[in-house]
Write a structure and sequence with these properties.
The chain folds into two domains: about 5-80; about 105-150, no CATH class. The chain has helices spanning about 15-25, 35-45, 55-60, 75-80, 115-120, 140-150; strands at about 5-10, 30, 50, 65-70, 105, 125-130, 135. The radius of gyration is 17 Å and the shape is elongated. By secondary structure, it is an alpha/beta fold. α1 packs across α4.
């Protein structure tokens, strides 16, 4: 499957936005305890759009792709990014919302010991993040989250 574009680098105070971007399938990196200079360097090197709430960072003279987020609420922040984002069923829920890595399908037998018995008996398909070990399935929240994501981009 082709990678969804663009990729983002977010300031630490945009963690919630990063999680929602990941739900949409976007590569949304948050580098903790990294200087502004190094974040700018990484954004350029990794060809990411740097998302920040800092006017000072947004006005840096150095050339790099950046976008100033003015809203506080994550739903409104997604609305601000509408020009960069698309809702695509093939990409939603393909990244770990915790660590940003792509998630992979896994057989339920391999994760039987780490998921609740009810979940094991009820669901067939599972995905896992090979980096942090988080397991995902299409539970009752899946349809509502999908609808919410779609609505955020069409506000």
């Amino acid at each position: 499957m082709k990678e969804i574009k663009p990729k983002f680098l977010l300031d630490e105070n945009l963690n919630r936005l990063a999680r929602w971007l990941r739900m949409l399938g976007y590569d949304a990196a948050v580098y903790k305890s990294v200087s502004i200079h190094n974040k700018v360097r990484l954004a350029k090197k990794e060809r990411r759009i740097y998302l920040t709430r800092s006017k000072k960072t947004a006005k840096l003279k150095e050339e790099f792709s950046r976008f100033l987020i003015s809203e506080v609420d994550h739903q409104q922040q997604l609305g601000e990014l509408r020009q960069f984002l698309k809702f695509n069923d093939d990409f939603i829920f393909t990244r770990c919302i915790e660590c940003n890595k792509k998630i992979e399908k896994i057989s339920k037998e391999k994760i039987k010991e780490i998921i609740p018995p009810y979940i094991y008996e009820t669901f067939i398909e599972f995905t896992i993040c090979r980096k942090c070990g988080k397991v995902y399935w299409q539970g009752s929240h899946y349809a509502s989250m999908k609808r919410q994501l779609k609505n955020m981009l069409t506000i």
